[in-house]
Please model this.
Amino acid sequence: MTDAVTTSLEAGVLTISFARPEKKNAITDAMYKVVADALEDAGSNDQVRVVLFRGEGDSFSAGNDINDFVAIAMGGGGGMNVFRVLKALAHFDKPVVAAVKGAAVGIGTTLLLNSDLVYVAEDARLSTPFVNLALAPEAASTILLPLAIGHQRAFSMFALGEVVSGSQAAAWGIANAALPAAEVEAAALKAAQELAKRAPRSLQLTKRLMRDAARLWSQMERENEAFGSQLTSPEAREAFTAFAERRPPDFSKVS
Ligand code: COA
Model:
């Protein structure tokens, strides 16, 4: 159990907070477990009408904890609760709202592509630098991101690690609104509370019709396979070592 993710339920809104601000809310396996448990329960709990994701501190989430990646890359194994989260997200048919400030890296951004209403700070920094880490994209982002913003922009985010501002994200259609940072949480909560008052079955049917859960999960399984095989590759080892040593990776020697 960890207290680096907290949950609270009020008036039908289940708030899931990443609460590890000293590490920019980087997500460990223990944290994924709390999120997976919460989503799995929320799916069948009539008390939960809407899920709201947010982060404590100045960032939404710096994505997967890179030390967990390193442990797997070095053969130490690792938990796979992230896959439970992805499976739950793919099939989740209640509305998901996200409030995003500061950095949203990797799954911090791909989670938004699996959300239904997204409110970002104008100066938020969204990125999916999977290739910089010699990994592969996840969370069905290889379908959802190009669908939302076009292949070339999506490729630049995946392959060059292009960082997109909150304002740009809203202009590209992956966020409903870009707001001053101080207003983001309130806007997201208000939207979640509004959704919680709507007819629940109608909302679920609407979401199910808009998202092909089977196709998204099938793509996630393909992505998970690519991600898993890259995790233990020499190029990923170089990328993780470079992160730890705070230097750019050097892929010139990997074949
Ligand atoms: N995994 C593990 N630790 C992380 C982390 C991650 N994904 N992201 C940040 N941290 C840690 C840093 O190592 C640092 O720890 P320290 O204080 O013990 O040195 C702390 O969080 C603060 O991060 P820092 O880099 O000093 O903050 P910043 O404001 O300069 O930069 C980020 C914030 C998010 C841009 C930067 O930390 C970053 O790029 N992180 C990696 C993101 C990433 O690649 N995620 C994986 C995606 S698949």
